[in-house]
Every structure is written in C-alpha cells, then in structure tokens.
Amino acid sequence: MKKLLLSFIMFVTLISSVKAEENEFECLVEAIYHEARGEELIGMLAVAGVILTRKENSNYPNTICGVVHQAKRFMGRIIRNKCQFSYYCDGKREEYHDLASALLSSDVAEMSLMGIQLKQTVGCTHYHASHVTPRWASNPHFKAMGQIGNHVFYIDMTP
pTM, whole model, 2 decimals? Predict the structure, then answer.
C-alpha cells in the first residue's frame, strides 16, 4: 500500500511539475490513458504520435487540448458521440481508475513531448480500434499504415 501511495504521489508530482500552455501535458496524458490504456508502450506511443501530428496539422486545432477535446457542439454543449476521440464525449467522466496505466500514460506523454515517435506512424492523423471499421476508413484518401496493438493507423492523403 505504501508503494502504491508513493507511486501516486510521484504521478501527481510529475504532472504538476510540467509547465505547459493550456495544460497540454495533462490533456495528452488524459487522451493516452483513455484511448490506449490497455496497450503496450508502443501502442500508447502510436496514439500519442497521432495527437501530436494533428496539433501540427493546419486542419486541426494547434494545441494538444484543442485536438483531444475537438467536438461538434450545439448551443455550446458537446454532442454525444461526435468527438474526434470517442472517450471525450461518451457521457462518462474522465477518471483514472488504473494507477499503473496512468503512470505509464504520463511517461509516454513525456517521451512524446520530447520527440520520441514511432517510425511506422509518422504522419498519421487517424486511427481506430481494430475491432471496428468507421466509414471514413474506406475513403481512398486514407492510407492504412498498419496495426499497432489494438489500433489501425492512417495517413490522410487528401491533396
């Protein structure tokens, strides 16, 4: 129990010690945790890479928080199941229930912000869980780059 508490304190300390505009670090940890917590390190890095690639792409918001919280809204309220990242508008609170995955998500966010990327997903702006096939995935403008863990990654080839 003491080790678990120490790990949690280290997690909180790490998050609070990173100074990033608009809580960028916290938003990245949140997205990695909720989108890829069941993945190995490599799968989590791939998801983080997509988020950071979108941030640099003019078709998406230019902040990490803007990317992960991008959603369709009506009268200022998020429309359920109309978000770029499904966890954000599924009607559930963004809570951390798995300490080990939260700590790993924090480490992955830090590595990603330092520039660590997977060669296989460089340039990818989209992914989906391998057990579903969203409509957009059959669009010829999206080139599948392969599966990593439980997700399939794509590059948007739109001219």
Answer: 0.83
